[in-house]
Amino acid sequence: MSKVSLKQINKSFGKEPAVCQLNLDVKDGEFLVLLGPSGCGKSTTLNMIAGLEKQDSGSIYIDDVMVDHIAPNKRNIAMVFQSISLYPHLSVRENIAFPLKLEKVNADLIEEKVKEVSSLLKIGELLKRKPYELSGGQRQRVALGRAVVRNPKVFLFDEPLSSLDAKLKNEMRSEIKKLQKKLDATFIYVTHDQIEAMTLADKIVVMEKGEIQQIGTPNEIYKDPKNLMIASFLGNPSMNLVELEKIDNKKEGKFHAFGDNFKISFFESLNISEEFRKRIKYIGIRPEKMFVSDKLPTNEYFISEGTVSLIEPVGSDSYIDVQLNSNSESDVNINVKIRVVPDLKINISDKVFV
Ligand code: ATP
User: Fold this and answer.
1) Ligand 1, pocket residues at CB < 6 Å
2) What angle do CA 225, 230, 235 make, to 5 degrees?
3) I need a surface site. Which of 121, 160, 276, 290 has the fewest CB within 10 A?
4) What percent of the chain clears pLDDT 70, i.e. is strictly above it?
5) What residues contact residue 13 under an 8 Å CB cut-off, 6+ apart?
6) Alpha-carbon dihedral of residues 202, 208, 213, 217, nearest 10 degrees?
7) Sorting pLDDT into bands at 50, 70 and 90, what band is 161?
8) Among protein residues, the one whose CA lies closest to atom 20 of ligand 1
9) CA-closest candidate to residue 317, choices 240, 236, 242, 221
């Protein structure tokens, strides 16, 4: 187990900054996920930790030792990439043993280690096969085996599952999570897939344009996103974000928010300060936090009327699009996506209360 610290890291390629003023602490045994859209600087950050890229300024520490001038192969780090780079002419056994052979570990110990790792990853019966005789998932397990066998201080993963199909991806995701718990090791994992980040991470670091936007547990980031980018990036379907023009003072116990061609009524119990009311620009509501009814709800949760414009069944749930307060004279339509039970009797063009 090891901790990793990045202090004031900057990195540019030409004039374009890839990573700006990055400060990050990864605890011993933590599963940390770097999450963000393509080009936000995740891989560059990982490569700098591995020593494959040199930062322009700032320092990187592993267990409080500065590693800025230490070569990648001396940092005691294992890296697993998206493109699985097994040696095609070597068997599974030889592929796993390869890093130990390089370190001139004695043959008996290598055999013992290969056995231990292959049993951990359930690939014991594949040891004699060559990579071309393996499925994508098995190849990824062997790549993991080759990383684990060296007993590194830190594991770095760069989108290791992105080339696998959806079912295999789910299986391997669980395997990686179990592996991390078993090894009690420090994992730093790069992905742009928010489901992967939510399911794997102890801590998520959301990045955009080379900067950290938010750090928190999956739950913290899902429940309390710090900005619009994070609010819309996490969650599938994503949060409904409705831009507002103004919110009126409380009338008849409710707040009323107005935008282009719609009005939304807020819960009575919502405590909005005068100062906050003036600053609100968007309302964000997750699809699973809204309900529809064909009768005007008598409770305080009524938001708006609307018309069903789309129904998308996904098996366990259905998602419906509701156009709020549609006004035929305007061409601005506010749609919200709402999760409903799959057997809800509802049709396109039905009028509903949200
Ligand atoms: P992805 O998810 O697509 O891999 P990322 O978040 O990992 O993206 P990086 O690969 O770290 O992003 O790239 C960050 C920025 O730096 C991008 O604008 C990219 O084009 C640029 N960049 C990365 N590597 C190089 C390089 N070797 N030469 C020039 N520019 C680079």
Assistant:
1) 13, 16, 18, 36, 38-44, 192
2) 90
3) 276
4) 95
5) none
6) -10
7) confident
8) 39
9) 236
Element (H, E) at 316: none
Which residue minimizes the CA distance to atom 14 of ligand 1?
A: 41
The ligand 1 atom at the shortest distance from the C-alpha of residue 43 is: 7
Mean pLDDT (the chain, rounded): 89
pLDDT in tens, 106-121: 999 999 999 988 888 8
With the most atoms of ligand 1 within 8 angstroms of its CB, the residue from 12, 34, 40 to mutate is 40
- pLDDT value at position 27? 97
* Residue 47 Cα: closest atom of ligand 1: 11
Q: Please state the atom number of ligand 1 nearest to the C-alpha of residue 14.
A: 29
Read off the tokens for 52: 């494959």
Tell if the pTM clears 0.85, that is, is over it.
Answer: yes
The rounded Å distance from CA 79 to ligand 1 centre is: 17
Ligand 1, closest atom to CA 44? 11
Kindly give the distance from the C-alpha atom of residue 46 to the centroid of ligand 1, in angstroms, as a whole number: 11
Residue 333 has pLDDT above 70, yes or no: yes
- What residues contact residue 155 under an 8 Å CB cut-off, 6+ apart? 77, 78, 79, 80, 147, 180, 185, 186, 187, 188
Which carries the bigger pLDDT value, residue 202 or residue 123?
202
Report pLDDT for 206. 97
